[in-house]
Design a protein that fits this description.
Layout: H1 5-8, H2 18-36, H3 43-46, H4 51-67, H5 75-83, H6 91-102, H7 123-139, H8 153-172, H9 176-207, H10 214-231
Length: about 230
């Protein structure tokens, strides 16, 4: 998939309804999660070091808190703590923590791959799940980059962000059928491929690992998923 172009898209927020502002903010947060769980050496991660990008994300955290105050309480506080570590001076420390947490000896509980969390270890079943994931991506004209896996948290979060953005643009432009397609795809992808394992991954990352950076990122993901966790 591509880099963080979604964060760079600018909307006139005063012209968006509350529903559209919610879609925009959630899209930004999902793609932010995608970047935060990517390798710190990548361009995808490095864009988060830019102060203007950090401010844009923080603004969307505040928007989510304003629109759904009971669901997204403390979102901006957690991201502010992440921002405090997101600079060039800390990049090497973050990379070392990334290797410690997600290196070759990582526990299954904090594996950033959905297939590793499946109870069914049958090779054919897992191959089919991977094919289903790629089928979703291809249906929307997206391909997974060679350095990524289709079931990686970063890949899946970026795809969900993309669906939310497409839904927002379709609603803004009055394209009701396309809006419905994007919403249904988001809900189905979450149900079949993302929500259950991502909730466990977020909880384990925020509570079961040592470090300063990734437990905060886990908490951010857990807060983002909280409304959908309650709904399901």
């Amino acid at each position: 998939m591509n880099d963080l172009q979604i964060i760079l898209i600018r909307f006139n927020m005063s012209e968006l309804t509350n529903t559209q502002q919610l879609l925009k903010a959630k899209s930004t947060l999902y793609v932010t999660i995608s970047a935060l769980f990517s390798d710190p050496d990548t361009k995808k991660f490095s864009i988060l070091l830019k102060p203007e990008i950090q401010k844009s994300i923080l603004d969307d955290c505040t928007q989510l808190e304003r629109i759904m105050v009971n669901d997204y309480f403390n979102l901006s506080m957690i991201f502010s703590k992440i921002i405090a570590q997101l600079d060039e001076d800390n990049l090497e420390k973050i990379h070392c923590e990334f290797v410690d947490v997600f290196g070759h000896t990582l526990s299954k509980k904090i594996a950033p791959y959905s297939l590793e969390h499946l109870k069914n270890s049958d090779v054919f079943f897992r191959t089919q799940k991977l094919a289903d994931l790629n089928g979703f991506y291809n249906a929307f004209g997206l391909e997974v980059e060679s350095i990524e896996r289709a079931d990686h948290i970063s890949t899946q979060a970026e795809f969900l962000s993309y669906l939310l953005l497409k839904e927002l643009i379709a609603e803004r432009d009055g394209l009701l059928e396309e809006m419905s397609i994007c919403k249904d795809a988001f809900d189905l992808f979450q149900k079949d491929h993302f929500l259950d394992w991502a909730i466990m991954f977020a909880d384990n990352t925020s509570t079961k690992i040592e470090g300063l950076f990734y437990p905060l990122v886990g908490r951010l993901l857990a807060l983002l998923l909280k409304p959908d966790k309650i709904k399901n």
